[in-house]
Amino acid sequence: MGFLSRLLGRGPRDLLADLAEDYRAEAMQAAQLRIDADRARYPQVADELRRLAEVEACHMAWLRERLVALGG
């Protein structure tokens, strides 16, 4: 248990559960960015939102690989 966990009174955490939660958050963020891109008034804003959605998709892929490697 780390210093902050002891300080804040938190017990040990489940790595797979944390990674799965992060994966879901990345998926939701990527989906929202794509929706926002489709609604964007300006093409340059839409392009940037789509680029950010792709960054989130890369994070999702990384998290998915870690989850699979850890047996999740």
Descriptive labels:
about 70 residues, mainly alpha, about 0% strand
Characterization of this structure:
With 72 residues, the chain is mostly helical. 81% of the residues lie in helices and 0% in strands. The chain has one domain.
Task: Show the helix and strand layout.
Blueprint: H1 3-8, H2 15-39, H3 43-69
Helix pairs in contact: 2-3
Low-confidence stretches: none
* Main sheet summary: none
Strand content: under 5%
Number of helices: 3
Distance between the termini: 22 Å
What is the 3D shape? elongated
Class by SSE composition: mainly alpha
> Would you list the SSEs in sequence order as H and E?
HHH
Query: Would you report the number of β strands?
Result: 0
Computed CA radius of gyration, to the nearest angstrom: 16 Å
Number of domains: 1
Regarding quaternary structure, what we see is: single chain
Average pLDDT metric: 91
User: What is the helix content?
Assistant: over 70%
Question: What's the short story on this structure?
Answer:
This protein has 72 residues and is mainly α. The chain has 3 helices and no strands.
